[in-house]
Amino acid sequence: MDQSLPAADIEALIQRDRVHAWHPYASMTSPPPAYPVVGARGVRLRLADGRELIDGMASWWAAIHGYNHPVLNAALTQQLERMAHVMFGGITHPAAAELCELLAGIVPGRLPHVFLSDSGSVAVEVGIKMALQYHLSQGRSARKRLLSLRGGYHGDTFMAMSVCDPVTGMHHLFSGALPEQLFAPRPQSRFEAGADDAALADDIAAFEAMLAAHAHELAAVILEPVVQGAGGMHFYSPAFLTAVRRLCDAHDVLLIADEIATGFGRTGKLFACEHAGIAPDILCLGKALTGGYMSLAATLASERVSRGICEGEAGVLMHGPTFMGNPLACSVALASIRLLLSQPWQRRITALEHGLREGLAPAAGLPGVREVRVLGGIGVVEMETPVEMARIQRLLVERGVWIRPFGRLVYTMPPFIMQPDDLGTLTRGIVDAVRTLGTGDGR
Fold first, then answer.
1. Which of 30, 184, 185, 396 to pair with 348, CA 20 to 30 A apart?
2. What is the extent of the structural domain holding 94?
3. Entry pTM
4. Residues 355 and 227 in one domain
5. 428 with 385, same domain?
6. Is residue 258 annotated as part of the catalytic site, yes or no?
7. Is residue 161 part of a domain?
């Protein structure tokens, strides 16, 4: 069905948006262009003027099954006929109970207790609160700080901001208002690093020194396993993660794994912790949890953590979002996870990885390109200098593709269902846009 709008209606929509809608990381005094979308199906976004774009972002990495999937649509419709929402305080419902049971059964290790929330940032807040309250309950009131990694990103709320990179991260403006956390050097060992890799040894030694020096004041280590997402799309050695788990155990420091970006298959494992064969004490999930349909997140905790909290002074975890356990979100999350597990998702990620490597390889020799790297369903072209967002966005849209670069990174994390022809169009569009940037054309 043609969902395009008349030119006058498109202009009116754009004007309303420009005057009133404050977009993420955007200015209201000089707002960047916003492309009106009126429909989405499969891996395509339909613009108001009738053009279609192949979506290489999966709606910020969440729409792993693409758009308008009949299974997910049906899950929402059926739940809507029963109830759209009910408070989770003192009440439960089938979708929430089944979702918590399913999550506890598929994550690494044994994390049987699941706290549902509304967004990834809140899942991180809850995870940090769990760690702090756990140590308080054990009488370790001095353990109030977190150790994170340089180059990390964990969200936009205040405690989450405090564990993002304090210098190169997006939140340095708030440094004076944030709790002061500790930061170990970003791991330099490559994803493929072997046990005898010199960079890996240096990474582990630097982390161990910082952990040992501050263990007495640390509640937890928080990191993104194997892939640092919005902090730079940086891939590091799973062996480093294995060492972090060992060192946390040795110093009785909890390990929080932020798998909001990597969970549900994006790196080629169902969860990125599996690359290292480890399990965290606390696990944060979001983004792809509902297949991109609704906002929902989860924080999972070990028996040790949950028991430690509940045997403390408060006797309860001190957190409770209004829309916690929303039935619509829980129902579509159940459907999305079951759909993923019922399909050959590993084969699809392998195919995506191959297509991204092959399709983005020509960018490696282009002017201004620092590096091209691929892992699972993640493809990155890192530039030498930051790209001009509005310009490269226009170049990409002209080539029929949608991605959202930031800083020096022109990257893609497409829906898992993307077929080779569309993936080829996507990667050619990226390479051509980068080439045009390098030649100074397309102004």
1. 396
2. 72-342
3. 0.97
4. no
5. yes
6. yes
7. yes
